[in-house]
Please model this.
Amino acid sequence: MNTGLIFTNENCIGCNKCVRICCSFGASVSYNRPDHSSIFINPERCIGCGACIDVCTHGARNYHDDTEQFFADLSKGEAISLLIAPAFEARYPKEYKKVLGALKALGVRRMLPVSLGADICTWAYLKLINEKGYTGRISTTCPVVVSFVEHWMPKLLQKLMPVKSPMMCAAQYFRQELGITDKFAFVGPCIAKRAEMDKYPELVQYNITFPKLIEYVNRYGLGNEERFEGLDAGLGTFYPAPGGLADNIKWFMGDDTPVRVISGKTYLYQRFRKNWKKLTTDNQPFVLYDALNCREGCLEGTARIEDDGREDRSFSAISDIRANSKCSSADSPWSPELSCAERLENLNRQFASLDINDYLTGFEDKSAVCRISYPTNEEAEAIFLSMHKETEHSREINCSACGYNTCRDMMIAIHNGFNTRHNCVYSEKEETLFLTKMSFSDTLTGVMNRNAYERKLKTMFARGGQVGLIIADVNGLKQANDNEGHAAGDRLIIETAHALANEFGVECVFRTGGDEFLVILQDFGKAEIESDISLVKEYLASVNVSVAMGLAFTEHFDGDIDTLREAADKKMYEDKESYYRMTGNNRRI
Ligand code: SF4
Ligand code: SF4
Ligand code: SF4
Model:
């Protein structure tokens, strides 16, 4: 449980927000703890989008990276160089130099810019678009986008641009072209980069995220600005901005080039799910889909220091970095004075020695781990019944409190073991009502039982005011039991109970003995109650049931129920006497 990259800690209170936001059905799994439910993450289904970290207001979601391991290995003298994402400077301008200077002082060998890898990425994309006609493809700079397609949309695998990410292109270049054999630590904003590292373990070894790195440096007071050395690269520095890749493509293909920029955790995956048919056709209106998991791109990646209002400042900073990376030299791909074709010529010249195949990658169909089992009609029925959902209406409440859009989705989640019926508020409410009913209602007649009577007395005492107390006792019960059997006796009791409940309300009628009922009425006038008693008797006579009833009434109840009860009892026996006189029955029956 919770062994994956992103995990739930002990702060989880089972609010289900993470279930609701998750684009990967079954990645967030509910289970019952003694006091409340909680959620764990199934790492096979989790695509590392980080939406649940954003949405959890209880600080119950966290993630693993390699920061601690990196520092441990560095202190042991491991040769490690850094691959630094361009978002670092833009997003954390204050910490940037201090942190990197500290790492240099601790023995990091080299500081290498990932933006050079982004430039290689642009070069490879343009080659595939221009030379192989790979248009209408989905960008693969974001590992979460790739993971989503691999897990949930294998039909789109053929539409992914088969180019390594900027981080991997950079690592490939530095290893192959510069012969660097140090271990590489990627300093970046992305939790899910670990997936790429696991795919190419020989290229990059550590994923160090900005927040955990900054926290570590602050914790040990390691800042050292003097040791920082600047980094250099082209327009790839703009990749972390939303539409950064599109910006690079247009730089070489012209501003009118149709590149669709699409980003945002929930939005992006909804679009993919909705439009997958259009996306798989060959006739695409766009040269490229520049797709990123995070709405603000890597500037506000999945691993970031929260809510510090840096979004606009970061975007402005990355725009400045972009402007500064332009160069007016005639042989530079980044010269604004040159035409698009001339820039592309320069870019191709810059990377002429590279073999594009070294920068390409493949993708895997991982949808088998995300399979969903759909219940048969009988199985669905059984699950709904276990949720106390017997009617169609109750199966379409769709309140989403469980985290799913519909009750049907919840039923499917239960069928797959992703959730339990206890997480359905309707089910729990019905269960509570049922248990309450069981403990306060009489099983034979459905009216209130003695427990309910005791409870009623407590609330009555607090209220005071007008109180009418009726005692009703079935006439001729023993005779019916002896002569016609217990079913006949039960009928008399049930008819009496139902007549009283229909007239006075079930919550006011208490079965306190075998054939004895108490009716407690508050805020009713005496005349009204007497008239209702006549109606009850009249109705019961029509179904051949006779009942003796006695009423005691007070305008100001002072809590003395015994006196009231004695008075009602007395009246009831007077009534019974008249029944005996009239029928000539033995008074003991
Ligand atoms: S959002 Fe998820 S992890 Fe956070 S408290 Fe709610 S159920 Fe737990
Ligand atoms: S990181 Fe994304 S896919 Fe994984 S559990 Fe959280 S919301 Fe779901
Ligand atoms: S009624 Fe229950 S199953 Fe339906 S959406 Fe609400 S919590 Fe989920």
Remarks:
- The chain has three domains: 109-181+222-368, 374-439, 441-583.
- Residues 375 and 414 are 10 Å apart (CA to CA).
- The pocket of iron/sulfur cluster (ligand 1) is lined by residues 8, 12-18, 39, 55-56, 58, 60-61 (CB under 6 Å).
